[in-house]
Amino acid sequence: xxxxxxxxxxxxxxxxxxxxxxxxxxxxxxxxxxxxxxxxxxxxxxxxxxxxxxxxxxxxxxxxxxxxxxxxxxxxxxxxxxxxxxxxxxxxxxxxxxxxxxxxxxxxxxxxxxxxxxxxxxxxxxxxxxxxxxxxxxxxxxxxxxxxxxxxxxxxxxxxxxxxxxxxxxxxxxxxxxxxxxxxxxxxxxxxxxxxxxxxxxxxxxxxxxxxxxxxxxxxxxxxxxxxxxxxxxxxxxxxxxxxxxxxxxxxxxxxxxxxxxxxxxxxxxxxxxxxxxxxxxxxxxxxxxxxxxxxxxxxxxxxxxxxxxxxxxxxxxxxxxxxxxxx
Amino acid sequence: xxxxxxxxxxxxxxxxxxxxxxxxxxxxxxxxxxxxxxxxxxxxxxxxxxxxxxxxxxxxxxxxxxxxxxxxxxxxxxxxxxxxxxxxxxxxxxxxxxxxxxxxxxxxxxxxxxxxxxxxxxxxxxxxxxxxxxxxxxxxxxxxxxxxxxxxxxxxxxxxxxxxxxxxxxxxxxx
Lengths: 328, 175
Prior knowledge:
The complex is a heterodimer. Chain A is an alpha/beta fold. Chain A has eleven helices and seven strands. Chain A is flat. The two termini of chain B are about 25 Å apart. Chain A: It comes from Gossypium raimondii (Peruvian cotton). Chain A: InterPro entries: LPCAT1-like, Plipid/glycerol_acylTrfase. Chain A: One of its GO terms (biological process) is triglyceride biosynthetic process.
């Protein structure tokens, strides 16, 4: 019989509520005392709180709720509205879409014809090359945005190029990045995609200094953290943009930011992106659609309207751990 | 209902409702079906253990492993029947039956000392030692009139748990 552990350390976890009050009941000393608590077999066997929580999680949980894409409510069900909607469809697919595709192609041609020479010819002169590439990337992003008739309102001061700065933003779709890139060339940390997007990623975006990771590789995380650190220290690297939620959220809830972004010890400048749902649902459910389909869908919608707010930069408060910082 | 189709017919809903003894309303069954399909990502017609564990709030529950052995491989009808104990329309008897099944891991209708010890371990594992758990359980059993060797059956559970109110309810979100 161990007489040394008469007093148990109490923890402040939720389990305390489910746990029966066994402390009252344990023998201290070498003989079993008369219990002064009212512990009965009933209390020990009653596991209903834990079971209720488990069943509650099975039935509905807040984490999955963030990823549900709301089914679009069709407003074309009426006899009167339906022909109008048909006209709208015709207009969108036959007129707007080709126009936009044209705009996009022109943009690409211009971009490629400038980019490739610049990339190869100015190999020696790094600084100038970087500047030009940055401008070009901004240009192509503007073209992209124009191809969806994007109306973007920017609020707040434009981000400046300072070292030890990290930008964080919420992430609804791949186009978040493009919208932000239009204003200022960022370096982003993203997941590697298959297909032509991957090709794009490795060639062009390399120029702005992006960092790739593969979610499935565990070791990758350390390498990525190191790269992130290096990048943010460099004075003339593009400011770094991170989407801390780790994946696309449906623009309604905000999944707790993963703490990785906040461990770098830099100033964190938050950016908020909010899409206007009336015009288009920009949420990209990456499990359901591929990126190309998504782009096409965007191009055939009316417009992409969104607001971008650049918020105040925040610093790590003295004594705050990165986890607490992330929770703010 | 053989394999999961994406549409649930009225006939299916009624069949499921009958199977769970009207524990859920038809709307609740539709919501549960959506949830089931959401959880069943590979579309196999049943939710595997891993798919359940991908719900973070479930994975951190101390009884998750025990529940997983009961949940693994259930099709939708059985899934609803499983959850029927948590419906507000379920009787106390049904809830106690559920708790009994959680304890009775080998399903022979008898709960042994070790079964109860295992569940206690799941709930309190890191706080007290095995020896202390055994002492407490033995003492409490003796007080209630059982011994360490006695095998509890369903009626014992009803006697023990039935007297005071048992709160075990879950609300199915219906939009």
